[in-house]
Specification:
single chain; alpha+beta; four-stranded antiparallel beta sheet; 4 strands; 20% strand
């Protein structure tokens, strides 16, 4: 059963689609998501619906992921569902991006969020490249690894040059 606030915010057709997404989540602990734009949304405005089966989501976990994607969270509407066999929640986040979202934003965004949730990629500024440069999360991860390599290499060079200086005999 959907709460009154959900019924006021969404049409029966949308509710049917959302329930279908929830039914697609297997087991007693899982999640899914849907990035969408409302009909009257301005360029760069979108909404993210997160479907959760199991314990409620922690905003402390979600907000850094969204910020790392380069979007600003402007509002959040949580909805609980009752009368189902599993504990279920829907979260609807209002997002703002500095410009129109790129083509394929839904797919890129969803895959990147899933990778962060599953621990396959880090939550950091490289995730901004997913929307900004239209990279996949794996491409952003490769650039992250390259940047870390270059930083380590530079650090190693500085340390070895420091070590050489320290070995110079004093007069």
């Amino acid at each position: 059963m959907l709460f009154r606030s959900y019924k006021e915010d969404f049409t029966p057709r949308t509710a049917a689609v959302d329930l279908g997404r929830i039914e697609g989540i297997r087991g007693d602990d899982g999640r899914d998501q849907s990035l969408y734009a409302e009909v009257d949304a301005a360029d760069g405005e979108a909404r993210l619906k997160m479907f959760r089966v199991g314990e409620p989501l922690s905003l402390s976990a979600v907000l850094p992921m969204l910020a790392s994607m380069g979007v600003e969270v402007v509002d959040e509407r949580p909805y609980g569902l009752t009368g189902l066999d599993r504990v279920t929640h829907i979260y609807d986040f209002g997002l703002r991006y500095g410009e129109a979202l790129p083509d394929h934003a839904r797919e890129l965004f969803a895959a990147s969020m899933r990778a962060m949730w599953d621990g396959q990629t880090e939550v950091d500024g490289f995730n901004r490249l997913v929307l900004r440069a239209q990279l996949t999360w794996r491409q952003a991860m490769l650039l992250r690894a390259y940047a870390k390599y270059m930083k380590d290499r530079k650090s190693t060079r500085l340390n070895s040059s420091h070590t050489d200086i320290s070995r110079v005999p004093s007069s």
